[in-house]
Amino acid sequence: MHPESASAPATFSRCFSVAPMMDWTDHHCRYFLRQLSQHALLYTEMVTTGALLHGDTQRFLHYNDTEHPVALQLGGSNPADLAACARLAEQAGYDEVNLNVGCPSDRVQNNMIGACLMAHPALVAECVKAMRDAVSIPVTVKHRIGIDGRDSYEELADFVGQVSEAGCQSFTVHARIAILSGLSPKENREVPPLRYDIAAQLKEDFPELEWILNGGIKTLEACRQHLETFDGVMLGREAYHNPYLLAEVDGQLFGSQLAPVTRHAAMLVMRPYIERHMAAGGQMHHVTRHMLGLAQGFPGARRFRQLLSADIHKSDQPLTIFDQAAELLVGR
């Protein structure tokens, strides 16, 4: 359905993207999602500058050419380190490098990464400028509308103003504040109220910038409605738990005339990929764990999930189990 190798697009659209999600949007997940949509922009998990510069660099940068357009998200606050990592991203062929200014976890706070950087707009601007000076690919920022103790619109506008002056032209805004003291990362995705009106005010006040809306979007109808105001939409957990939603994205949001791939066809195209992964010493569940939502909404969905999440571990012929799961999707 898609070629095993494809060159990076000369241009790409941020009309629809899948959010960076820790432990979820690895290269297996992105390869699978690409079988459903050719045009959605896919993001890596957040990679810290320390991991990239001092860890297994090739593992963290690995992707399949089929994944384009694909963006690398970085976590860090040292301008020189971020510039070095941006260069690595460009050399590896990524289409964009994105700075995380939205993650609320304790681990990233302790390392001055993520949402706590909302309180340091001058530092974020310095980081963006260093990255922009280092590479020719786009440098973008993903951020919240505020954090506890710094959640006024004036402070948010000051943040955007400083960072845009440093050269960032595209902002992805998660339309919730992050409460860094007292809420878990999961609670920070659910408890602070969504304020699409605040994000819309940014779009109105900074019309020269590109604005991508993130947070609480669950349907393509909602995507279309938000695209009347914003330049793009980013989906996170809904895109992961209900991946077949992506099969309609190209036609509904990008104007593609191609018929959406069926669930069954998406399963079949993943089989040779899984075979190669296993031949290289990998486990099938590294890939199939990202595919469990493909049968969502069908009577056989529970059986489908059981086959791919539990039964494959009990069989010495896991590909046979995979084929049984694929059979459940024939005609769908």
Polypeptide structure, described:
It is a single chain. The chain has 332 residues and is of the alpha/beta class. The protein folds into 2 domains: 16-253, Alpha-Beta Barrel (TIM Barrel); 263-327, Four Helix Bundle (Hemerythrin (Met), subunit A). The protein has 16 helices and 8 strands. Strands 1-2-3-4-5-6-7-8 form an 8-stranded parallel beta barrel, surrounded by 5 helices. Strand 1 (16-18), helix 1 and strand 2 form a beta-alpha-beta unit. The longest helix is centred in the C-terminal third of the chain and has 17 residues, at 263-279. The radius of gyration is 20 Å and the shape is globular. Mean pLDDT is 94; it is low at 1-8.
Q: Topology of this protein?
A:
Elements (H helix, E strand, L loop, with lengths): L15 E3 L8 H10 L4 E8 H6 L2 H5 L8 E6 L3 H14 L3 E6 L4 H5 L10 H14 L4 E9 L5 H13 L4 E9 L6 H4 L7 H10 L4 E5 L5 H7 L5 E4 L1 H5 L7 H5 L9 H17 L5 H4 L12 H14 L3 H10 L5
Parallel strand pairs: 1-2, 1-8, 2-3, 3-4, 4-5, 5-6, 6-7, 7-8
Helix pairs in contact: 4-6, 6-7, 13-16, 15-16
Tell me briefly what this model is.
The chain has 332 residues and is of the alpha/beta class. It has 2 domains: 16-253, Alpha-Beta Barrel (TIM Barrel); 263-327, Four Helix Bundle (Hemerythrin (Met), subunit A).
Essential attributes:
332 residues; alpha/beta; TIM Barrel; Four Helix Bundle (Hemerythrin (Met), subunit A); eight-stranded parallel β-barrel; 15% strand; tRNA_hU_synthase_CS
Number of domains: 2
Main pleated-sheet profile? 8 strands, parallel, barrel
Order of helices and strands: EHEHHEHEHHEHEHHEHEHHHHHH
Overall body shape: globular
Whole-number radius of gyration?
A: 20 Å
Fourth-tier CATH superfamily name of the largest domain: Aldolase class I
**End-to-end distance, in Å?**
17 Å
CATH C-level of the largest domain: Alpha Beta
Return residue spans where pLDDT drops below 50 for at least 5 consecutive residues.
Answer: 1-8
The chain-level structural class is alpha/beta
**The CATH topology of the largest domain is what?**
TIM Barrel
Quantity of strands, as a count: 8
Strand content: 15-25%
Number of helices: 16
**Looking across the biggest beta sheet, what order are the strands in?**
1-2-3-4-5-6-7-8
Averaged pLDDT: 94
- CATH A-level architecture of the largest domain: Alpha-Beta Barrel
Helix content percent band: 40-55%
